[in-house]
Amino acid sequence: MSQHEHVRVAVIGSGFGGLGAAVRLRREGVTDFVVLERADSVGGTWRDNSYPGCACDVPSHLYSFSFAPNPDWPRTFSGQRHIRAYLERVADTFGLRPHLRLNHEVTLARWDEDELRWELETAHGATFTADVVVSAGGPLSDPKIPAIPGLETFPGKVFHSARWDHDYDLRGKRVAVIGTGASAIQVVPAIQPEVAKLTLFQRTPPWVMPRADRAISAAERWLHRKVPVTGAVRRQLLWGIRELQVQAFTKRPNELGVVESIAKANMAKAIKDPALRAKLTPSYRIGCKRILLSSAYYPALAQPNVDVVAAGLTEVRGSTLVGADGTETEVDAIVFGTGFHVTDMPIAQRVVGVGGTTLAEAWKGGMEALRGATAAGFPNWMTVIGPNTGLGNSSMILMIESQLNYLADYLKALDALAAPGERVALDPKPAAVGAWNDRVQERMKRTVWNTGGCTSWYLDANGRNTTIWPGTTTEFRKATREVRLVEYDVLRPDRARAAETVKEAAL
Ligand code: NAP
User: Which domain holds residue 414?
Assistant: First the structure.
Protein backbone atom coordinates (compact mmCIF):
# COMPACT_ATOMS: atom_id res chain seq x y z
CA MET A 1 0.00 0.00 0.00
CA SER A 2 1.50 3.35 -0.93
CA GLN A 3 1.69 5.95 1.82
CA HIS A 4 2.11 9.69 1.61
CA GLU A 5 3.28 12.10 4.26
CA HIS A 6 3.99 15.83 4.26
CA VAL A 7 6.73 17.02 6.57
CA ARG A 8 8.45 20.28 7.27
CA VAL A 9 11.89 18.69 6.84
CA ALA A 10 13.00 15.45 5.19
CA VAL A 11 16.50 14.37 6.12
CA ILE A 12 18.20 11.90 3.79
CA GLY A 13 20.65 9.53 5.46
CA SER A 14 21.22 8.52 9.06
CA GLY A 15 24.96 8.68 9.48
CA PHE A 16 26.66 11.38 11.55
CA GLY A 17 25.19 14.08 9.27
CA GLY A 18 21.60 12.83 9.24
CA LEU A 19 21.40 11.94 12.92
CA GLY A 20 23.10 15.21 13.83
CA ALA A 21 20.51 17.08 11.77
CA ALA A 22 17.70 15.16 13.47
CA VAL A 23 18.99 16.02 16.94
CA ARG A 24 19.37 19.65 15.96
CA LEU A 25 15.85 19.81 14.52
CA ARG A 26 14.39 18.49 17.75
CA ARG A 27 16.45 20.96 19.75
CA GLU A 28 15.09 23.77 17.58
CA GLY A 29 11.58 22.59 18.37
CA VAL A 30 10.99 21.05 14.93
CA THR A 31 9.32 17.68 15.38
CA ASP A 32 7.62 17.46 12.00
CA PHE A 33 10.41 15.66 10.17
CA VAL A 34 11.48 12.26 8.89
CA VAL A 35 14.87 10.68 8.36
CA LEU A 36 14.86 8.60 5.17
CA GLU A 37 17.46 5.85 5.33
CA ARG A 38 18.14 3.37 2.54
CA ALA A 39 19.49 0.64 4.82
CA ASP A 40 17.81 -1.20 7.67
CA SER A 41 19.76 0.53 10.44
CA VAL A 42 21.43 3.84 11.21
CA GLY A 43 25.14 4.57 11.05
CA GLY A 44 25.95 5.59 7.47
CA THR A 45 29.52 4.93 6.53
CA TRP A 46 30.13 3.45 9.99
CA ARG A 47 27.45 0.85 9.32
CA ASP A 48 28.58 0.08 5.77
CA ASN A 49 32.30 -0.16 6.42
CA SER A 50 32.68 -3.26 8.52
CA TYR A 51 35.89 -4.51 6.94
CA PRO A 52 38.46 -6.16 9.22
CA GLY A 53 40.58 -3.49 10.91
CA CYS A 54 38.10 -0.66 10.25
CA ALA A 55 38.68 2.14 12.74
CA CYS A 56 38.65 5.90 12.73
CA ASP A 57 41.92 7.74 12.19
CA VAL A 58 40.62 10.77 14.09
CA PRO A 59 40.72 10.43 17.90
CA SER A 60 37.36 9.37 19.30
CA HIS A 61 36.99 12.23 21.77
CA LEU A 62 37.07 14.60 18.79
CA TYR A 63 35.25 12.29 16.39
CA SER A 64 31.95 12.48 18.27
CA PHE A 65 29.20 15.05 18.68
CA SER A 66 29.94 17.93 21.05
CA PHE A 67 26.39 17.51 22.38
CA ALA A 68 26.80 13.77 22.95
CA PRO A 69 30.18 13.19 24.59
CA ASN A 70 31.09 9.59 25.21
CA PRO A 71 33.21 9.12 28.33
CA ASP A 72 33.45 5.41 27.56
CA TRP A 73 35.39 5.41 24.30
CA PRO A 74 37.50 2.29 24.70
CA ARG A 75 40.49 3.39 22.62
CA THR A 76 42.07 6.64 21.54
CA PHE A 77 41.17 5.64 17.95
CA SER A 78 38.04 3.53 18.38
CA GLY A 79 36.98 0.80 16.01
CA GLN A 80 33.98 0.73 13.68
CA ARG A 81 31.90 -1.43 16.04
CA HIS A 82 32.12 1.13 18.83
CA ILE A 83 31.44 4.10 16.54
CA ARG A 84 28.41 2.37 15.06
CA ALA A 85 27.14 1.53 18.57
CA TYR A 86 27.65 5.18 19.55
CA LEU A 87 25.41 6.31 16.66
CA GLU A 88 22.74 3.78 17.63
CA ARG A 89 22.85 5.23 21.16
CA VAL A 90 22.50 8.77 19.78
CA ALA A 91 19.35 7.64 17.95
CA ASP A 92 17.94 6.29 21.23
CA THR A 93 19.10 9.00 23.61
CA PHE A 94 17.72 11.86 21.52
CA GLY A 95 14.41 10.18 20.72
CA LEU A 96 15.07 9.89 17.00
CA ARG A 97 13.53 6.44 16.40
CA PRO A 98 9.99 7.68 15.67
CA HIS A 99 11.40 9.87 12.90
CA LEU A 100 13.37 7.10 11.20
CA ARG A 101 12.05 5.56 8.00
CA LEU A 102 14.43 2.67 7.39
CA ASN A 103 14.63 0.89 4.02
CA HIS A 104 13.42 4.11 2.39
CA GLU A 105 15.98 4.85 -0.29
CA VAL A 106 15.17 8.11 -2.04
CA THR A 107 14.81 7.31 -5.73
CA LEU A 108 13.66 10.75 -6.87
CA ALA A 109 13.46 14.23 -5.39
CA ARG A 110 11.61 16.78 -7.52
CA TRP A 111 11.10 20.47 -6.77
CA ASP A 112 7.48 21.51 -7.20
CA GLU A 113 7.73 25.10 -8.44
CA ASP A 114 4.07 25.85 -7.82
CA GLU A 115 3.75 24.41 -4.35
CA LEU A 116 7.29 25.39 -3.33
CA ARG A 117 8.11 22.06 -1.84
CA TRP A 118 10.02 18.91 -2.58
CA GLU A 119 8.33 15.71 -3.72
CA LEU A 120 10.22 12.61 -2.72
CA GLU A 121 9.79 9.06 -3.97
CA THR A 122 11.32 6.13 -2.17
CA ALA A 123 12.18 2.57 -3.12
CA HIS A 124 9.87 1.50 -0.30
CA GLY A 125 6.90 2.94 -2.24
CA ALA A 126 6.11 5.63 0.29
CA THR A 127 6.15 9.20 -1.00
CA PHE A 128 6.76 12.41 0.91
CA THR A 129 6.52 16.11 0.38
CA ALA A 130 8.80 18.36 2.36
CA ASP A 131 9.32 22.10 2.72
CA VAL A 132 13.03 21.58 3.22
CA VAL A 133 15.33 18.67 2.40
CA VAL A 134 18.56 18.04 4.27
CA SER A 135 20.65 15.78 2.09
CA ALA A 136 23.00 13.96 4.42
CA GLY A 137 23.81 10.88 2.37
CA GLY A 138 27.48 11.70 2.73
CA PRO A 139 30.25 11.72 0.14
CA LEU A 140 31.66 8.35 1.21
CA SER A 141 28.54 6.29 0.72
CA ASP A 142 28.63 4.88 -2.81
CA PRO A 143 31.56 2.51 -3.37
CA LYS A 144 33.54 2.83 -6.57
CA ILE A 145 34.88 -0.21 -8.40
CA PRO A 146 36.93 0.84 -11.43
CA ALA A 147 35.95 -0.52 -14.85
CA ILE A 148 38.73 -3.09 -15.20
CA PRO A 149 38.59 -4.95 -18.53
CA GLY A 150 37.88 -8.64 -18.00
CA LEU A 151 36.72 -8.29 -14.39
CA GLU A 152 33.55 -10.16 -15.33
CA THR A 153 35.70 -13.18 -16.28
CA PHE A 154 37.12 -13.53 -12.77
CA PRO A 155 35.86 -16.81 -11.33
CA GLY A 156 36.60 -16.03 -7.68
CA LYS A 157 35.17 -13.70 -5.06
CA VAL A 158 35.07 -9.94 -5.61
CA PHE A 159 33.96 -7.30 -3.16
CA HIS A 160 34.54 -3.70 -2.13
CA SER A 161 35.98 -2.76 1.27
CA ALA A 162 32.72 -0.93 2.07
CA ARG A 163 30.62 -4.01 1.25
CA TRP A 164 32.65 -6.66 3.01
CA ASP A 165 31.36 -10.19 2.56
CA HIS A 166 31.66 -11.66 6.05
CA ASP A 167 30.41 -15.02 4.83
CA TYR A 168 33.44 -15.47 2.61
CA ASP A 169 36.34 -17.09 4.45
CA LEU A 170 39.65 -15.54 3.40
CA ARG A 171 41.70 -18.05 5.39
CA GLY A 172 44.22 -19.84 3.21
CA LYS A 173 43.21 -17.89 0.09
CA ARG A 174 45.32 -15.92 -2.39
CA VAL A 175 43.92 -12.42 -2.07
CA ALA A 176 44.54 -9.25 -4.05
CA VAL A 177 43.89 -5.91 -2.38
CA ILE A 178 43.49 -3.10 -4.89
CA GLY A 179 44.37 0.36 -3.69
CA THR A 180 46.38 1.94 -0.89
CA GLY A 181 43.96 4.50 0.58
CA ALA A 182 42.78 4.82 4.19
CA SER A 183 40.56 1.73 3.83
CA ALA A 184 43.09 -0.60 2.17
CA ILE A 185 45.87 0.18 4.64
CA GLN A 186 43.57 -0.93 7.46
CA VAL A 187 42.44 -4.07 5.62
CA VAL A 188 45.96 -5.27 4.76
CA PRO A 189 47.36 -5.78 8.29
CA ALA A 190 44.02 -7.20 9.48
CA ILE A 191 43.86 -9.99 6.88
CA GLN A 192 47.57 -10.62 6.21
CA PRO A 193 48.04 -13.14 9.06
CA GLU A 194 45.24 -15.40 7.82
CA VAL A 195 45.53 -15.38 4.05
CA ALA A 196 47.88 -17.70 2.17
CA LYS A 197 49.14 -14.91 -0.06
CA LEU A 198 48.33 -11.21 -0.22
CA THR A 199 49.14 -9.16 -3.31
CA LEU A 200 48.74 -5.44 -2.94
CA PHE A 201 48.19 -3.42 -6.10
CA GLN A 202 49.64 -0.02 -5.32
CA ARG A 203 49.13 2.60 -8.00
CA THR A 204 50.46 5.41 -5.83
CA PRO A 205 52.24 4.89 -2.50
CA PRO A 206 50.64 6.72 0.43
CA TRP A 207 52.41 8.61 3.20
CA VAL A 208 51.80 6.66 6.39
CA MET A 209 52.42 8.08 9.86
CA PRO A 210 52.51 5.97 13.02
CA ARG A 211 49.17 5.74 14.83
CA ALA A 212 49.39 6.39 18.57
CA ASP A 213 46.49 4.10 19.37
CA ARG A 214 46.05 2.76 22.89
CA ALA A 215 43.33 1.58 25.21
CA ILE A 216 41.80 4.37 27.26
CA SER A 217 42.32 3.29 30.84
CA ALA A 218 39.49 2.57 33.28
CA ALA A 219 40.74 5.49 35.39
CA GLU A 220 40.51 7.92 32.46
CA ARG A 221 37.03 6.72 31.62
CA TRP A 222 35.96 6.99 35.25
CA LEU A 223 37.28 10.56 35.33
CA HIS A 224 35.48 11.52 32.12
CA ARG A 225 32.25 10.05 33.51
CA LYS A 226 32.49 11.66 36.94
CA VAL A 227 34.00 14.98 35.88
CA PRO A 228 32.67 15.59 32.34
CA VAL A 229 34.72 18.75 31.94
CA THR A 230 37.84 16.54 31.69
CA GLY A 231 36.44 14.94 28.53
CA ALA A 232 35.66 18.39 27.17
CA VAL A 233 39.21 19.57 27.87
CA ARG A 234 40.60 16.49 26.16
CA ARG A 235 38.46 17.25 23.12
CA GLN A 236 39.54 20.89 23.06
CA LEU A 237 43.21 19.90 23.14
CA LEU A 238 42.76 17.44 20.28
CA TRP A 239 40.92 20.11 18.30
CA GLY A 240 43.42 22.89 19.10
CA ILE A 241 46.44 20.90 17.93
CA ARG A 242 44.76 20.16 14.61
CA GLU A 243 43.61 23.74 14.20
CA LEU A 244 47.21 24.92 14.52
CA GLN A 245 48.31 22.49 11.80
CA VAL A 246 45.93 23.87 9.19
CA GLN A 247 48.16 26.72 7.99
CA ALA A 248 50.83 24.26 6.87
CA PHE A 249 48.27 22.51 4.65
CA THR A 250 46.67 25.65 3.30
CA LYS A 251 49.46 28.20 3.08
CA ARG A 252 52.89 26.72 3.72
CA PRO A 253 53.03 23.17 2.33
CA ASN A 254 56.84 23.23 2.47
CA GLU A 255 56.63 23.07 6.26
CA LEU A 256 55.14 19.60 5.87
CA GLY A 257 58.57 18.32 4.83
CA VAL A 258 59.34 17.75 8.52
CA VAL A 259 56.37 15.42 8.75
CA GLU A 260 57.68 13.42 5.78
CA SER A 261 60.77 12.46 7.80
CA ILE A 262 58.54 10.99 10.55
CA ALA A 263 56.64 9.00 7.94
CA LYS A 264 59.89 7.79 6.36
CA ALA A 265 61.16 6.68 9.78
CA ASN A 266 57.85 4.84 10.31
CA MET A 267 58.54 2.96 7.10
CA ALA A 268 62.24 2.35 7.69
CA LYS A 269 61.54 0.81 11.10
CA ALA A 270 59.53 -2.00 9.51
CA ILE A 271 60.78 -2.29 5.92
CA LYS A 272 64.38 -3.43 5.82
CA ASP A 273 64.48 -4.34 2.12
CA PRO A 274 65.70 -1.23 0.22
CA ALA A 275 63.93 -2.28 -2.98
CA LEU A 276 60.60 -2.53 -1.16
CA ARG A 277 61.29 0.76 0.63
CA ALA A 278 61.88 2.43 -2.75
CA LYS A 279 58.56 1.07 -4.04
CA LEU A 280 56.72 2.35 -0.99
CA THR A 281 58.25 5.83 -0.92
CA PRO A 282 55.92 8.54 -2.26
CA SER A 283 57.19 11.19 -4.65
CA TYR A 284 54.71 13.93 -3.76
CA ARG A 285 54.36 16.24 -0.78
CA ILE A 286 52.85 14.68 2.32
CA GLY A 287 49.28 15.90 2.89
CA CYS A 288 48.49 16.14 -0.83
CA LYS A 289 46.55 12.92 -0.41
CA ARG A 290 45.06 12.16 2.99
CA ILE A 291 47.85 11.40 5.47
CA LEU A 292 47.30 7.84 6.62
CA LEU A 293 47.86 6.61 10.14
CA SER A 294 49.00 3.07 10.83
CA SER A 295 51.66 1.35 12.85
CA ALA A 296 50.65 -2.04 11.46
CA TYR A 297 50.67 -1.43 7.68
CA TYR A 298 54.42 -1.54 6.98
CA PRO A 299 55.09 -4.49 9.33
CA ALA A 300 52.40 -6.41 7.41
CA LEU A 301 53.96 -5.54 4.05
CA ALA A 302 57.31 -6.91 5.29
CA GLN A 303 55.82 -10.38 5.85
CA PRO A 304 56.86 -13.21 3.50
CA ASN A 305 53.28 -13.88 2.32
CA VAL A 306 52.88 -10.32 0.98
CA ASP A 307 53.85 -8.97 -2.45
CA VAL A 308 53.53 -5.35 -3.50
CA VAL A 309 52.86 -4.76 -7.18
CA ALA A 310 53.85 -1.12 -7.60
CA ALA A 311 51.33 -0.58 -10.38
CA GLY A 312 47.62 -0.27 -10.88
CA LEU A 313 45.40 -3.19 -11.80
CA THR A 314 44.69 -2.84 -15.51
CA GLU A 315 43.18 -6.11 -16.64
CA VAL A 316 41.73 -9.37 -15.40
CA ARG A 317 42.09 -12.58 -17.42
CA GLY A 318 40.16 -15.29 -15.63
CA SER A 319 41.87 -15.67 -12.28
CA THR A 320 44.96 -13.76 -13.42
CA LEU A 321 45.34 -10.10 -12.50
CA VAL A 322 47.47 -8.02 -14.82
CA GLY A 323 49.29 -4.98 -13.46
CA ALA A 324 50.16 -1.84 -15.42
CA ASP A 325 53.78 -3.04 -15.17
CA GLY A 326 52.89 -6.26 -17.02
CA THR A 327 53.06 -8.53 -13.93
CA GLU A 328 50.58 -11.38 -13.71
CA THR A 329 49.22 -12.68 -10.42
CA GLU A 330 46.79 -15.52 -9.88
CA VAL A 331 44.35 -15.00 -7.01
CA ASP A 332 41.20 -16.47 -5.45
CA ALA A 333 39.64 -13.21 -4.29
CA ILE A 334 39.83 -9.51 -5.06
CA VAL A 335 39.16 -6.82 -2.45
CA PHE A 336 38.67 -3.39 -3.99
CA GLY A 337 39.77 -0.61 -1.65
CA THR A 338 39.18 1.83 -4.47
CA GLY A 339 37.17 4.49 -2.72
CA PHE A 340 33.85 6.18 -3.39
CA HIS A 341 31.88 8.26 -5.88
CA VAL A 342 32.63 11.56 -4.20
CA THR A 343 32.64 14.23 -6.90
CA ASP A 344 30.09 12.29 -8.95
CA MET A 345 27.61 11.38 -6.21
CA PRO A 346 24.85 9.15 -7.64
CA ILE A 347 22.16 10.96 -5.63
CA ALA A 348 22.80 14.13 -7.68
CA GLN A 349 21.17 12.40 -10.67
CA ARG A 350 17.97 11.89 -8.72
CA VAL A 351 17.54 15.47 -7.55
CA VAL A 352 15.53 17.57 -9.98
CA GLY A 353 15.46 21.29 -9.29
CA VAL A 354 14.03 24.42 -10.93
CA GLY A 355 13.30 23.98 -14.65
CA GLY A 356 13.84 20.23 -14.49
CA THR A 357 17.61 20.50 -14.11
CA THR A 358 19.21 17.72 -12.11
CA LEU A 359 21.86 18.43 -9.51
CA ALA A 360 24.20 16.24 -11.56
CA GLU A 361 23.65 18.50 -14.59
CA ALA A 362 24.09 21.64 -12.51
CA TRP A 363 27.35 20.22 -11.13
CA LYS A 364 28.77 18.78 -14.33
CA GLY A 365 31.41 21.53 -14.45
CA GLY A 366 32.19 20.86 -10.79
CA MET A 367 30.22 20.74 -7.53
CA GLU A 368 29.41 24.18 -6.14
CA ALA A 369 27.36 25.28 -3.19
CA LEU A 370 26.96 28.41 -1.14
CA ARG A 371 28.82 27.97 2.16
CA GLY A 372 29.05 24.26 1.42
CA ALA A 373 25.29 23.87 1.73
CA THR A 374 22.88 25.28 -0.86
CA ALA A 375 22.96 25.16 -4.66
CA ALA A 376 21.39 27.69 -7.06
CA GLY A 377 18.22 26.32 -8.66
CA PHE A 378 17.62 23.87 -5.80
CA PRO A 379 15.57 25.90 -3.31
CA ASN A 380 15.37 24.68 0.26
CA TRP A 381 17.77 21.82 -0.50
CA MET A 382 20.69 21.70 1.87
CA THR A 383 23.60 19.31 1.65
CA VAL A 384 25.42 18.28 4.80
CA ILE A 385 29.10 17.69 3.98
CA GLY A 386 28.47 19.50 0.73
CA PRO A 387 31.09 20.85 -1.69
CA ASN A 388 34.34 22.07 -0.13
CA THR A 389 33.50 21.12 3.44
CA GLY A 390 35.93 18.18 3.78
CA LEU A 391 38.95 18.26 6.05
CA GLY A 392 42.41 16.89 5.54
CA ASN A 393 43.48 16.81 9.18
CA SER A 394 40.63 17.12 11.65
CA SER A 395 37.21 15.81 12.58
CA MET A 396 34.35 16.08 10.10
CA ILE A 397 31.95 16.20 13.03
CA LEU A 398 33.08 19.79 13.62
CA MET A 399 32.11 20.70 10.07
CA ILE A 400 28.79 18.87 10.32
CA GLU A 401 27.91 20.77 13.49
CA SER A 402 28.72 24.08 11.75
CA GLN A 403 26.40 23.11 8.93
CA LEU A 404 23.70 22.29 11.47
CA ASN A 405 24.02 25.83 12.86
CA TYR A 406 23.39 27.04 9.32
CA LEU A 407 20.39 24.73 8.98
CA ALA A 408 18.89 26.01 12.24
CA ASP A 409 19.28 29.62 11.12
CA TYR A 410 17.90 28.77 7.68
CA LEU A 411 14.70 27.41 9.20
CA LYS A 412 14.38 30.50 11.39
CA ALA A 413 14.83 32.70 8.32
CA LEU A 414 12.06 30.84 6.50
CA ASP A 415 9.75 31.28 9.50
CA ALA A 416 10.55 34.97 9.71
CA LEU A 417 9.85 35.51 6.00
CA ALA A 418 6.58 33.61 5.79
CA ALA A 419 3.22 35.16 6.50
CA PRO A 420 1.01 32.90 8.66
CA GLY A 421 0.21 29.76 6.71
CA GLU A 422 2.41 30.81 3.80
CA ARG A 423 5.20 28.65 2.42
CA VAL A 424 8.36 30.42 1.25
CA ALA A 425 11.62 29.10 -0.11
CA LEU A 426 15.16 30.35 -0.40
CA ASP A 427 17.20 29.88 -3.54
CA PRO A 428 20.83 30.99 -3.44
CA LYS A 429 21.68 33.62 -6.03
CA PRO A 430 24.06 32.30 -8.69
CA ALA A 431 26.25 35.37 -8.11
CA ALA A 432 26.50 34.59 -4.38
CA VAL A 433 27.34 30.95 -5.05
CA GLY A 434 29.91 32.05 -7.61
CA ALA A 435 31.50 34.60 -5.28
CA TRP A 436 31.74 32.08 -2.45
CA ASN A 437 33.33 29.48 -4.71
CA ASP A 438 35.72 31.98 -6.28
CA ARG A 439 36.97 32.80 -2.79
CA VAL A 440 37.31 29.12 -1.93
CA GLN A 441 39.17 28.35 -5.17
CA GLU A 442 41.43 31.36 -4.76
CA ARG A 443 42.50 30.10 -1.34
CA MET A 444 42.84 26.61 -2.74
CA LYS A 445 45.60 27.64 -5.12
CA ARG A 446 48.28 27.62 -2.44
CA THR A 447 47.18 24.51 -0.60
CA VAL A 448 49.05 21.23 -0.48
CA TRP A 449 46.03 19.49 -2.05
CA ASN A 450 46.48 21.53 -5.22
CA THR A 451 50.25 22.07 -5.26
CA GLY A 452 51.54 18.85 -3.71
CA GLY A 453 52.08 16.98 -6.98
CA CYS A 454 49.49 14.22 -6.61
CA THR A 455 46.05 13.31 -7.82
CA SER A 456 43.43 12.35 -5.25
CA TRP A 457 39.72 11.98 -4.73
CA TYR A 458 39.75 15.58 -3.52
CA LEU A 459 39.98 16.65 -7.17
CA ASP A 460 37.18 16.15 -9.68
CA ALA A 461 37.44 15.05 -13.32
CA ASN A 462 38.38 18.63 -14.27
CA GLY A 463 41.19 18.72 -11.71
CA ARG A 464 39.24 21.14 -9.51
CA ASN A 465 39.26 20.67 -5.76
CA THR A 466 35.56 20.66 -4.90
CA THR A 467 35.79 18.64 -1.72
CA ILE A 468 38.16 20.21 0.78
CA TRP A 469 37.70 23.29 2.95
CA PRO A 470 40.84 25.40 2.56
CA GLY A 471 40.78 26.94 6.03
CA THR A 472 40.36 26.29 9.72
CA THR A 473 37.27 24.79 11.29
CA THR A 474 36.90 28.08 13.18
CA GLU A 475 36.66 30.01 9.92
CA PHE A 476 34.01 27.63 8.64
CA ARG A 477 32.07 27.88 11.91
CA LYS A 478 32.06 31.66 11.53
CA ALA A 479 31.03 31.50 7.87
CA THR A 480 28.06 29.26 8.64
CA ARG A 481 26.84 30.92 11.85
CA GLU A 482 23.94 32.58 10.09
CA VAL A 483 22.15 32.77 6.78
CA ARG A 484 22.76 36.07 4.95
CA LEU A 485 19.55 36.80 3.16
CA VAL A 486 21.27 39.06 0.63
CA GLU A 487 22.77 35.85 -0.77
CA TYR A 488 19.32 34.41 -1.49
CA ASP A 489 16.30 34.97 -3.65
CA VAL A 490 13.08 34.53 -1.72
CA LEU A 491 10.41 32.53 -3.52
CA ARG A 492 6.78 33.00 -2.62
CA PRO A 493 3.87 30.86 -3.77
CA ASP A 494 1.99 33.44 -5.81
CA ARG A 495 5.05 34.27 -7.86
CA ALA A 496 7.33 31.42 -7.21
CA ARG A 497 9.07 31.84 -10.52
CA ALA A 498 9.65 35.57 -10.07
CA ALA A 499 12.21 35.70 -7.36
CA GLU A 500 12.01 38.52 -4.91
CA THR A 501 15.20 39.84 -3.47
CA VAL A 502 14.96 40.72 0.14
CA LYS A 503 17.56 42.99 1.61
CA GLU A 504 19.10 41.86 4.88
CA ALA A 505 18.19 45.21 6.35
CA ALA A 506 14.53 44.61 5.64
CA LEU A 507 14.35 41.96 8.34
P1 NAP B 1 40.62 6.26 -1.61
O2 NAP B 1 41.35 7.09 -0.65
O3 NAP B 1 39.89 6.92 -2.71
O4 NAP B 1 41.65 5.23 -2.20
C5 NAP B 1 41.40 4.51 -3.35
C6 NAP B 1 42.64 3.76 -3.72
O7 NAP B 1 42.36 2.94 -4.82
C8 NAP B 1 43.80 4.67 -4.12
O9 NAP B 1 44.97 4.20 -3.54
C10 NAP B 1 43.82 4.53 -5.64
O11 NAP B 1 45.07 4.75 -6.23
C12 NAP B 1 43.42 3.09 -5.74
N13 NAP B 1 43.01 2.63 -7.07
C14 NAP B 1 41.97 3.03 -7.83
N15 NAP B 1 41.96 2.34 -8.98
C16 NAP B 1 43.00 1.48 -8.94
C17 NAP B 1 43.52 0.51 -9.83
N18 NAP B 1 42.96 0.26 -11.01
N19 NAP B 1 44.61 -0.18 -9.45
C20 NAP B 1 45.20 0.04 -8.26
N21 NAP B 1 44.76 0.95 -7.38
C22 NAP B 1 43.67 1.66 -7.72
O23 NAP B 1 39.54 5.30 -0.89
P24 NAP B 1 39.47 4.78 0.61
O25 NAP B 1 40.74 4.17 1.03
O26 NAP B 1 38.25 3.98 0.75
O27 NAP B 1 39.33 6.10 1.46
C28 NAP B 1 38.39 7.10 1.09
C29 NAP B 1 38.26 8.06 2.24
O30 NAP B 1 37.46 7.45 3.24
C31 NAP B 1 39.52 8.41 2.96
O32 NAP B 1 40.32 9.35 2.32
C33 NAP B 1 38.98 8.90 4.27
O34 NAP B 1 38.50 10.21 4.17
C35 NAP B 1 37.84 7.95 4.48
N36 NAP B 1 38.27 6.83 5.33
C37 NAP B 1 38.55 7.15 6.61
C38 NAP B 1 38.99 6.17 7.44
C39 NAP B 1 39.29 6.57 8.84
O40 NAP B 1 40.07 5.95 9.47
N41 NAP B 1 38.67 7.63 9.36
C42 NAP B 1 39.17 4.87 7.01
C43 NAP B 1 38.86 4.58 5.70
C44 NAP B 1 38.41 5.57 4.86
P45 NAP B 1 45.64 6.23 -6.50
O46 NAP B 1 46.10 6.73 -5.17
O47 NAP B 1 46.71 6.05 -7.48
O48 NAP B 1 44.49 7.02 -7.03
Answer: 4-142+341-506
Cβ 33 vs Cβ 25: under 8 Å: yes
Distance CA 175, CA 169 (A): 11
Number of structural domains, the chain?
A: 2
Residue owning the nearest CA to atom 2 of ligand 1: 181
Asked if 65 contacts 83 with a C-beta cutoff of 8 angstroms, the reply is no
Of 242, 283, 307, 338, best ligand 1 pocket probe by most atoms within 8 Å of the beta carbon: 338
Residue nearest to atom 36 of ligand 1 (CA): 182
Q: Residues 6 or more apart from 247 whose CB is under 8 A from it?
A: none
Nearest CA to ligand 1 atom 23: 339
Q: What are phi and psi of 446, to 5 degrees?
A: -95, -5
Q: Quote the ligand 1 centre to 201 CA distance (angstroms).
A: 12
Residue among 459, 397, 458, 466 at smallest CA distance from 45: 397
Helix H, strand E, coil C: the string for 30-71 is: CCCEEEECCCCCCCCHHHHCCCCCCECCCCCCCCCCCCCCCC
The rounded Å distance from CA 184 to ligand 1 centre is 7
Candidate from 46, 58, 180 with most ligand 1 atoms within 8 A of CB, to mutate: 180
CATH of the domain at 298: 3.50.50.60
In total, the chain counts a number of residues equal to 507
CB 395 within 8 A of CB 58: yes
Distance 43 CA to ligand 1 centre (A): 20
In a domain, 227, yes or no: no
CA of 462 to the centre of ligand 1 (A): 19
pTM over cut 0.85: yes
If pLDDT is split at 50, 70 and 90, which confidence band does 493 have?
A: confident
Distance (angstroms) between ligand 1 centre and the Cα of 339 equals: 4
Q: Which atom of ligand 1 sits closest to the CA of residue 455?
A: 48
For ligand 1, atom 28, which residue shows the shortest CA distance? 339
Handedness of CA 347, 367, 412, 89 (dihedral sign): positive
Last residue of a domain, one of 305, 336, 367: 336
- In the predicted model, is pLDDT for residue 504 greater than 50? no
Distance 181 CA to ligand 1 centre (A): 3
Residues 301 and 357 in one domain: no
Domain end among 313, 336, 359 = 336
Q: How confident is the model at residue 1 (pLDDT cuts 50, 70, 90)?
A: low
